[in-house]
Amino acid sequence: QTVVTQEPSLTVSPGGTVTLTCASSTGAVTSGYYPNWFQQKPGQAPRPLIYSTSNRHSWTPARFSGSLLGDKAVLTLSGAQPEDEADYYCLLYYGGPQLVFGGGTKLTVL
Amino acid sequence: QVQLVQSETEVKKPGASVKVSCKASGYTFTSYYLHWVRQTAGQGLEWMGVIKANGGSATYAPKFQGRVTMTSDTSTTTAYMELSSLRSEDTAIYYCVRGGTLTYYYFDVWGRGTLVTVSS
Q1: Does A34 touch chain B (CB under 8 A)?
Q2: From the CA of A63, how many Å to the nearest CA of chain B?
């Protein structure tokens, strides 16, 4: 069974920069996994932030960026705002089609 | 604007089935994939499967194979997800999500979710 791993929790100071990672149990995450990133606040449906590794949706603030770093997909938040406090999920594509979400990262802005 | 409106909360007994609907509007329904994702209480997201809304075949996550059926009705632009042999662990919020037109790995518009509670 494929497992996608994220940090359970991270903390960032207001205005600071934080990096969230997304790893696959099958090996290095490449662009062929088309990583997606989602933000979810309590009581709300997830909101898409990034698709295909690094592409922002039209509504995604520019302070969010996606990339690959080493063998992982990465979501970088530069200049964190209080409203960025949320859970963040990555999603990887394994072909087939089969897709697997990561366990999520709870981001605290403090 | 693009919208996915889901059916209301359901309460089911163990062993029963549930059928959740997802009414699409604001775009060409048949051109897009439609995914189903669930989220159990306090837990993360789980991809269940995908269907091409033009009535094409569906693909399911191995965990749900044999228990889930995804369909679409192009006349009413509504997608359905039916889950059978329900157990307490299936208590969750079920979301429909619009995918891409040619790709499985693009997600944009999410429904607000349907809470399904399985309890005796």
Answers
A1: yes
A2: 19
Could you tell me the end-to-end alpha-carbon distance of chain A, in angstroms, rounded to an integer?
A: 36
pLDDT digits (tens, 9 = 90+) for A44-75: 999 999 999 999 999 999 999 999 999 999 99
Q: What is the pLDDT of residue B56?
A: 80
Q: Count of A–B CB contacts within 8 Å?
A: 62
Exposure letters B50-78 (e unless 16+ CB within 10 A, then b)? bbbbeeeebbbbeebeebbbbebeeeebb
Which tokens belong to A107?
């981001």
Cα of A104 to nearest chain B Cα, Å = 6
Contacts of A52 (CB under 8 A, 6+ apart): A31, A34, A35, A36, B105, B106
